[in-house]
Structures are given as structure tokens and as C-alpha cells.
Amino acid sequence: MKNFFFVVIVVCFFCPYIFSEAIDISRVEEQTIKNNPLLKVAQLDLNTAKQEYGRAFSLFLPNVIFTGNVSDSKNELQSSNKIRSYSLALEGSLSLFEGFSSYNELKEKSAKLKIAQTSYDRAVADVRYNVHVCYINLMWAYETVSLLEKIKERRKENRDLIQLKYNSGNVDIGSLKRGDADVALAEYNLEKAKRYIQTANKTLLNAIGRTDEVTLEPTEQLLHKGEIFSEPDYNNLVMTTPEFLQAKYIFEMYKAISSKIKGQWLPSLYLSGNVGKNGFHWVPEAQNWAARLTVSYPLFTGSKRYRDVKIASNQAKVASYKLTNKVSYLKSKAIENYNDLLDACKVIAIRTFYVEASKLQSEISTKKYVNGLCTYYDWYSIENDYIAAQQSLLDAKKIASAVEAKWLNFIGKGFNNKEEYK
Q1: Is 5 inside any structural domain?
Q2: Is residue 55 part of a domain?
Q3: What residues contact residue 159 under an 8 Å CB cut-off, 6+ apart?
Q4: d(Cα 162, Cα 172) in Å, to the nearest integer?
Q5: Interatomic CA distance for residues 334 and 134, integer angstroms
Q6: Nearest-angstrom CA–CA distance, 144 and 133
Q7: Contact 116/49 with Cβ under 8 angstroms?
Q8: Cα 392 to the center of its chain, rounded Å
């Protein structure tokens, strides 16, 4: 019974680390779309902008108000009786002309909606980038463990080979101790890499938006082979980025605001009217109606209108300059990011070549060392080069995958199944 309770306690304590879940990039994206709170916030912000844009159409529609009134009155000089009266009315008003204010208000809200859309696209691209980098990191962590297990076994084999050489008097005690130290270091690196999987796993769970405790196990590997796509047309590319589009729509918004404020110098024309009934009985019988056409023009408002126009004009100019500067900046960033991707991809080919060459050299030198045709120091140096080359190749694949994700983030790449989050 004691053993039973001990097992239960151990299972309850370690259950977050016992259960694992196989996952690939498609599942990662699917779960991120479903759970990530930043995507939900971005979606709500976009929906708010859509509602504000829809509300702008109400400026072109009439305002209609229905009123009903029941009142009691008493005048003791004329009568001691209480007098009750009733009235019903339907009132309406419509703005016929406000210096194109309604039209420019709609243009402003339209630009704000486009700004909100580009902000949403940027938020989605940033979430995608973050979760992809976290997934790349987790794949790299698992592959690092697998590689370090092989390195540990190789270090043990090399240590055993040095032991044989030491027993036969061909190497000194220092070389043997160095072999033992290499094994100890390999074991430490392996344990450290296994612990890091927990860190990478939790980071990915957070990026996805999950709060449960489970160990994610990728069913994929870092298969980046260093393929390089052709250099893009930077001028056309930057025109499609969320940052450029946002700067463009901000400029359009301020132009609409400027036009709306300039309309304050024009007269306003309103049409209004009402129809109703009133009397001392329910339902009242006496009918009345009225129709009004109103023209208004503010003759003097201090310097408010003049200064409002200057402010709006300056804001539009500032937005224009920022748009021009944004194009130049984005083009330089596009060139920088593409060159980083180009470099990262080319490194993979070089590192792959190094692994193949050092592996062949290791096989040759090991045979020579066993047969006494190679010194310990030459053989040991070649072994270290081979191990380092394998680690460098794996790191190069990780870097290239992350740099490619950064490139896709720069151009505003969202998730593949867009319909699920738009």
C-alpha cells in the first residue's frame, strides 16, 4: 500500500512531463490561430474599426425621432378642473450639405479601417514569426540531444581507444585523462541539452497560447538545405509590406481630415420637419406639420477655422514625408534581410561540405592511429574538428530557418489557413 501511494505521488508530481504530444508546423499554426491572445486582440481591434467605418454611413441618412407627451395642468382662476392634453409627433432632419464634411468623414473612416487592417496583418505576421522561431528552436533542441548522444558515444569509443594505446605504452596518462574529461563534458552537454528542451517546450506553448503542461515532440527535423530563391524586385516588394501600406493609409487619412476641415469655410444646408397631433382626447385629433430648410454659415469663430486648416495641412505634409522616408527605409531593410538570408543559406552548403570532409578525414586518421601511422595529437585534432563540424551544421540550419522566418515576417507573411483567423 505504501508503494502504491508513493507511485501515485510521483505520477502526480511528474505528470506534466510524462505526457507528450506529437506536433508539426501545421498543428502549431492551427493551435496558435485558435489560442493566441494577441491574435484575438488584433481581431477585436479590426472589428472595432469595421464598426466605426459602418457608423460613418449614418451621416448620409436622416435622423428620425418619435415623441409622445401627456400633460396635466390646472388654472384655479379659470376652472377648478384639471386639464389633460396629449400630443404625438414625428420629427426628422437631414443634412443636405456640410461642406463635404460627411463625404470626407467617410473617407477618413475608410482610411482608418485600412490602417486597422494593416495593423492586424502586421500583428498576425509577428505572431506567426514568433511561433515559428519557437518551433524551430524546439526542433533544434531535440536534434541537439540526438547529436550529443552520438557525440557522447563517440567520445567513449575514443576514450576506450586511448585506453588501449595507454595500456600498450603509446600515449601518456595526460592523454588518457583528457579522454575521460571529453566523456564527462559530453555527458554534461547532453544533460544540459535535455534540460533545455523543457525551456524551449514552455516557450513554444506560450507562443501558441496554451496554458496546459505537456511535452511537445516535433515530428519534423530542421531540413533546411540552403535553397536560395531569386533576388526580388525591392521597389515592388516594399509596396506590399504592412508598414508601407499603413504609412500610405495614414497619409490618406490626414488628407481626408484636411479636406473635412477646409469644408468649415462653406455654408451648411439642413432640411427638417415634423408632423403630429395634439388635443385633449386620446387619440388627439388636431393635426399639425412643419417643414424647414435651414442655411447656416459661421461668420466669425476667432481664428479657429484658419488654425484648424493649417494644423490639418501640416499633419498631411508630415504624413507625406514619413511615407517617402518609409519607402527608403523599407527598401534598405529588404536588401539587408535578403542578404542575411542569402548568407545563412550559403553557410549550410559550406558546413555540409565541412562535415563530409571531416568525416572522411576522421575515418582515415582513426585507421592510421589504430595502426600506429598517425600521432595522437593529429588524430585527436581531427576528431574534434569532425564533432565541431556536425554541431556547426546543425546550428547553421537553425539560423537559416530563423532568418527565413524573419524574411517572411518582413514581407508580412501570415498563416497559410487565412480563412480561420480573418
Answers
A1: no
A2: yes
A3: 176, 179, 180, 182, 183
A4: 9
A5: 23
A6: 16
A7: yes
A8: 30
* Cell numbers describing residue 137: 528552436
* Cβ 115 vs Cβ 41: under 8 Å: no
Q: What are the residues facing 273 on neighbouring strands?
A: 92, 291
The domain tally of the chain equals: 1
Residue pair 135/206 in contact (Cβ under 8 Å)? The answer is no
Long-range contacts of 302-307 (CB under 8 A, 24+ apart): 305/261, 305/264, 305/265
Residue range(s) defining the domain that contains residue 319: 22-63+99-267+303-416
What is the pTM (predicted TM-score) of this model?
0.81
b vs e for 307-326, b when ≥16 Cβ sit within 10 Å of the residue's Cβ? ebbeebbebbeebeeebeeb
| 272 belongs to a structural domain | no
- Residue 131 phi, psi dihedral angles, 5° rounding: -70, -35
The full length of the chain comes to: 422
Looking up residue 375, the CATH number of its domain turns out to be: 1.20.1600.10
Q: Burial letters for 356-375: b for 16+ Cβ neighbours within 10 Å, e otherwise?
A: eebeeebeebbeebeeeebe
The residue type of 411 is I
342-384 pLDDT, tens digit per residue, is: 999 999 999 999 999 999 999 999 999 888 898 999 999 999 9
* Other Cβ atoms closer than 10 A to 108: 22
CA distance 154 to 390: 13
Of the candidates 309, 356, 256, 294, the residue with the CA atom closest to the CA atom of residue 56: 256
Provide the pLDDT for residue 99. Answer: 57
407 lies in some domain: yes
Catalogue the E-assigned strands of 238-319.
268-279, 286-296
- Interatomic CA distance for residues 98 and 93, integer angstroms: 13
How many C-beta neighbours within 10 Å does residue 245 have?
Answer: 21
